[in-house]
Amino acid sequence: MNFSTLFSSFTCTSSIQKNGPEQEPPSQLHFDIDPVTGFVPPEPLPRLCREFKIWEDVLEEAPDVLKLGDDISEEALALKAKGEAWRAHIRAISILDIVSLKAQPRILQRAHVVLAWLVQYYVHSLPPSVETKRVPASLAVPLVGVSRLLGIAPVITFSDTITWNWELIRPGDPVTIDNMAVVHNFTGREDERHFYQVQAAIELHGVQILQIIEEYTKTSHLDEPTISKIAGNLTRMTVIIEEINDLIQSIRTGCDPHVFYWEMRPWFNGNDAKGPSDPGWIYEGVDPDVPELKYLSGPSGGQSAVMHALDLFLDISHDFEGGCSTNKPADRGFMNRMRLYMLGKHRAYLEQLQKSPRPIRELAKYIPALREPYNDAIAALKKLRSFHMRIAVMYITNMARASSLQPRNPEVGVDKNRQEVRVESGNVTKSNRPEQSEPVRGSGGSDFAPLLRAGIDATARASLRDP
Ligand code: HEM
């Protein structure tokens, strides 16, 4: 696209606006994006009632009676019978018809949270001797139904753990991170709460990015004041990206990598956590050929719609053919796949953004005043991705490596069956380490090192050189 085409795409919108508002691109409100809270709902989700309260009740009971299936600590062994009774109760619940929820999007979202958390509790508390993980029809059927109505994958997602997993500390006061309390927590650990809270803070902080995008989308002409406004907004965006980077780093102050890797992460795993050769989960009562059952990965930061919006606005393409700079093939479809784990309306917003007739990168190519602010934003995002990768290595690769070496420290031992066990805070937990030949996977099921490296490379490629 050359400058005159770009220019006419702006002036053309201006004449469209004169001809009537129906031609304007829909605003973010149309996509269930709140002006103040963005992709986070403007109020906590309401609890389920009537016949659906039974799901709320079993979820409330879960943390008191369930431990990871391979946890052999005394506490876990003492709870075994209660855990089995809980799972038997789940199997006995009748399959509830969700049709009455159809017109109530916030209730559907809450139903997704409750059912998706129940699925994780059910599957990951099963004893390791159970080879095929079967999700009972009482959970699987309504979860698939609710997910279809919302346009989101039928499994626990970033929304279920972050954007929908909070209530207000002081009801009536604004939705700010200081006024939000995490509701569901697998481990009951402060580390897990911190992990969710930091990501919720990023989603709220990202609202400023969405406002900049909205303002740019509504720009109708390209005069000098407008160009200087766009340049100013790109500079603001750079600062916001740097602040998000700081927030990601703040994970380290409250979430211990051992607790993350050994205690939290096993609960997050989706059906592909062990790689493509694993048979995965069976959703009883659901046709195994329905397309949505292909999307049962665990939650990932890759499902944050804010991060996708940022990539699309800055025109960063993750579809590059040639692997990453380390020459390992990366999963090029990952980011697109992650969109299927978002609310359908949020995905539709990203699709609309992707079709933008006036990508800012093209504009920055032709308008010298925009080139540097654009490149600064790209540099900040590249730095964010590099720092994020360090976090991923620290929390996953290093932990996996430590487990594949001989006992890391005197607290780690080997049980009678020659399986590594870990003793921490009085808990003894069997190792769930990956086989040596297997890549270390992220909770989104990816061989994550080449994936994250490819993301850094894709960001760097967007940078504009001097003409
Ligand atoms: C302990 C903290 C974290 C760890 C260990 C971690 C790990 C990972 C891993 C392994 C991936 C690869 C995809 C997958 O399999 O899930 C990933 C992707 C991603 N994560 Fe994180 N992450 C952490 C925190 C965050 C935070 C706080 C954010 C901010 C929203 C974030 C944003 C992303 C994004 C956007 C991707 C997609 C890849 C990309 O855009 O480069 N992560 N993360």
What labels would you give this structure?
17 helices, iron, binds protoporphyrin IX containing FE, mainly alpha, two-stranded parallel sheet, heme binding, 467 residues
| Main beta sheet strand tally, sense and closure | 3 strands, antiparallel
CATH topology: Methane Monooxygenase Hydroxylase, Chain G, domain 1
Helix content: 40-55%
* Highest CATH level, the class: Mainly Alpha
Q: How many beta strands in the DSSP annotation?
A: 7
Bound compounds = protoporphyrin IX containing FE
Helix and strand string, N-terminal first? HHHHEHHEEHHHHHEHHHHHEEEH
Radius of gyration: 23 Å
Total of helices: 17
Please state roughly what percent of the residues sit in beta strands, choosing from under 5%, 5-15%, 15-25%, 25-35%, 35-45% or over 45%.
5-15%
Structural class by helix and strand composition: mainly alpha
Averaging pLDDT over every residue, what do you get? Answer: 88
- Terminus-to-terminus distance: 15 Å
Number of domains: 1
What global shape is seen? globular
Low-confidence segments, given as residue ranges, are: 12-22, 406-436
Strand order of the largest sheet: 5-6-7
Instruction: Assign the CATH architecture.
Output: Up-down Bundle
